[in-house]
Amino acid sequence: MLNRIYHKEYTAPKKEQIRNELNVLQIIDEIMPLIQHKLNHFSVHPNDKEDLCQEVLIKLYRALSKFDFTKSTPLEHYVNRVIKNIKNDYIRKKMNDNRRQEMLVNEFLVTYNSLKSETHIERYIISKEVTAQLKQCLNRLTPLEQKIINYILNDYKPKEIANLLDLNIKVVYNAIQRCKIKIRCCLKK
Predict the structure, then answer these.
(1) Based on the domain organization, do 25 and 66 belong to the same domain?
(2) CA atoms within 13 A on the CB side of 158
(3) 161 & 122 share domain
(4) Are residues 107 and 168 in the same domain?
(5) N or C: which terminal CB in the chain sees fewer CB atoms within 10 Å?
(6) Which residues contact 67 (CB under 8 A, 6 or more apart)?
(7) Counting beta carbons within 10 angstroms of the beta carbon of residue 172, is it exposed (0 to 12), middle (13 to 18) or buried (19 or more)?
(8) pLDDT per position in the chain (189 positions), as tens?
(9) What is the rounded CA–CA span in Å between residue 91 and residue 88?
(10) Pair (107, 171) in one structural domain
């Protein structure tokens, strides 16, 4: 008994089934030029036409076995509707792919721009930290060295500083060198 359940015997197809399949194949051969003509449209990429044609044929093959030829609706109308639906699905898919591509590009641009803005923020934070460290180092200098460094930071020349503070120019140069050494030592810590 188990043998009968698992090993079904081959039964020959009935003549009616063969006729129906031959009729369906004959109908498909007759409407094939119509399908190809309808799919020859600017919105359908030439590489995709054959795939769409196969989709139409599959849908028609499935539907023709159930199609009622006695009704007043012509087969050509049904074929046109199937082709139109397939083309609409194809166009929707292409539009969604284009939108997805645009979203990916926009996502990249947003990421890139946010990374660019982060570098400005990072530079700002680093400059604030350096400024704070420099102020701490300047507090360790003598009052004369602090005055000279303030003038240097305000773009005064050593000769101008010497004239303003009524000092010898060599004293100003020596003070600048001592400030450089003290600031380097302070920043290394």
Answers:
(1) yes
(2) 11
(3) no
(4) no
(5) N
(6) 75, 78
(7) buried
(8) 444 444 444 444 455 555 566 676 777 778 788 888 888 877 777 888 888 888 888 887 777 767 676 777 777 787 888 888 888 888 899 899 888 888 888 887 777 776 666 667 778 888 888 888 888 888 889 999 999 999 998 999 999 999 999 999 999 999 999 999 998 888 886
(9) 5
(10) no
pTM confidence score: 0.44
Residue ranges of alpha helices (H) inside the chain are: 2-6, 15-39, 49-64, 75-139, 143-153, 158-165, 169-188
Q: At what angle do helices 15-39 and 49-64 cross, to 10 degrees?
A: 150
Q: Which amino acid makes up residue 185?
A: C
Question: Do residues 149 and 180 lie in contact, with contact meaning Cβ atoms separated by under 8 Å?
Answer: no
Contacts of residue 5, Cβ cutoff 8 Å, sequence gap at least 6: none
